[in-house]
Design goal:
Layout: H1 2-18, E1 38-42, H2 49-59, E2 64-68, H3 79-88, E3 93-97, H4 105-115, E4 120-125, H5 129-133, H6 138-141, E5 143-146, H7 152-160, H8 175-180, H9 186-196, H10 207-226, H11 232-247, H12 255-262, H13 266-278, E6 282-285, E7 298-301, H14 305-309, H15 314-326, E8 333-334, E9 343-345, E10 348-353, E11 364-367, E12 377-379
Parallel strand pairs: 1-4, 1-5, 2-3, 3-4, 10-11, 11-12
Antiparallel strand pairs: 6-7, 8-9, 9-10
């Protein structure tokens, strides 16, 4: 039976390699996985984890075999037996996608890593929470690589074929940067990107429908593996949190009110927020010096394109995009008094808004709907070149 299964894996891998896209995310070059024996690649659904891994297999000198742990034909078979058969057949390494679907996966992966010291094991999942939940010493064996949501820089490359280097900072942009983009309609491209291009699934069409499906899978299909004693009510609470954030004019959560509405204790509510944050469904921006989920923290959907797909608040979408980009390079904090400015990074005060947004007491205004920087007013789209 396992021999037939391996033949099926081999055929699937050849199909996947044949359908690799011609252009791939530039971020992939930042992941030094080649000489790592045990690796976990994680990131939100739809960011391109499988494409990255298949591309690595296709270009590797080693002989890898790939399979997904959620494939129905393997659910009744021990993971250890399947991978042992792969190694005994002569493969140098194995790539296992959606690892959390395999029964007792952490015990089996640890045993395989120890029993086959000359073999490479790469696993992938939607969150690094899966390692935190596993046996304590597995995280020491496996190097973690995160694939973030796609930057505007990458979108420009995939759609226009123009590849620019990431900017060192949002307020120090060289002239060559704008020269290379002079023949593009940058504001139109940015609108297309932030509304329906933040995950590479945009190349497949029906972006919003796909995004809604990925969100549903993340909540109902993935999170129950990360949280002990999860209940249907808890999943509905997470849906309610997302629904609130999409339309709320002020991106905050009234914890007491939501706990009362859903008959939920605060400790459990904070636990759900923790899981949502570390599953990268939301970004929580705390005020300086605060170490818990306290009143006044700003909370955004991690993927700004959700605001458009669910007809949400445009102002929150702008701030969500700014946070998504800035947090890849800086520690981002919310202002103690938002009447002064929105965020602070490395002591720099930032205000986010539209073309006519006032600076308040900010050092820089990050403005949507402008194509070039003027004095201390920086186009919002430039943040998309930070990584």
């Amino acid at each position: 039976m396992i021999d037939k299964l391996l033949e099926q894996f081999e055929l699937t891998l050849e199909r996947l390699k044949a359908y690799l896209p011609e252009k791939k995310r530039p971020f992939y070059k930042n992941i030094p996985i080649d000489n790592i024996r045990g690796a976990l690649v994680y990131g939100l659904r739809g960011v391109g984890k499988t494409t990255f891994l298949i591309d690595k297999i296709a270009s590797s000198k080693k002989n890898f075999l790939y399979f997904s742990a959620d494939h129905p034909s393997i659910l009744s078979l021990p993971l250890y037996d399947i991978v042992s058969a792969i190694f005994k057949k002569g493969y140098d390494g194995v790539v296992i996608d959606e690892i959390h679907h395999a029964n007792k996966w952490s015990e089996h992966v640890k045993a395989l890593y120890d029993d086959y010291p000359g073999k490479t094991i790469w696993i992938s999942d939607s969150s690094n929470l899966i390692l935190r939940k596993s046996v304590s010493d597995l995280s020491r064996r496996f190097v973690q690589f995160r694939i973030p949501l796609m930057s505007f820089r990458e979108y420009i490359f995939l759609t226009q074929g123009i590849l620019l280097n990431p900017t060192n900072s949002f307020d120090d942009i060289g002239k060559d940067f704008f020269v290379k983009l002079k023949n593009t309609n940058i504001l139109k491209l940015f609108t297309d990107y932030i509304n329906g291009g933040i995950r590479p699934i945009f190349t497949e069409g029906e972006y919003c429908s796909r995004l809604k499906g990925l969100l549903e899978k993340s909540i109902y299909y993935d999170i129950p593996f990360y949280v002990s004693s999860i209940q249907d009510n808890h999943l509905r609470v997470m849906n309610a949190i997302i629904g609130h954030l999409i339309t709320a004019p002020i991106p905050t959560i009234n914890v007491s009110s939501m706990c009362n509405d859903w008959d939920l204790g605060k400790e459990k509510f904070y636990n759900l927020l923790y899981v949502m944050e570390h599953s990268e469904l939301i970004n929580i921006v705390k005020k300086p010096g605060r170490f818990t989920y306290t009143k006044g923290a700003k909370v955004f959907l991690s993927d700004p394109s959700m605001y458009n797909c669910f007809k949400g608040n445009l102002g929150s979408a702008r701030e969500a995009f700014a946070v998504m980009c800035l947090k890849e390079k800086y520690k981002v904090f919310a202002c103690k008094d938002e009447r002064d400015y929105d965020f602070v990074i490395d002591g720099i005060k930032i205000e986010i808004g539209g073309r006519n947004k006032r600076s308040k007491n900010a050092d820089f205004v990050i403005s949507d709907e402008i194509d070039l920087p003027v004095r201390n007013r920086i186009p919002l789209w430039i943040l998309g070149f930070l990584y």
